[in-house]
Write a structure and sequence with these properties.
51 residues; elongated; mainly alpha
Length: 51
């Protein structure tokens, strides 16, 4: 198993785990209102998008 294959396998496992817990990675979907996840008052990504 090369490093690249290991990296891909790890990433897929990570995304599966995230979905089971109900947390969506940033690049799939930005903050989704959820009762168990507090949305930060200061959104660091908002500043970048305003420019």
């Amino acid at each position: 198993m090369t490093n690249e294959e290991r990296e891909i396998a790890w990433r897929e496992q990570f995304l599966d785990d995230m979905q089971k817990v109900g947390i969506k990675p940033y690049y799939r979907q930005r903050y989704e209102p959820a009762l168990h996840i507090p949305v930060p008052k200061h959104d660091p990504y908002a500043e970048l998008e305003e420019r």
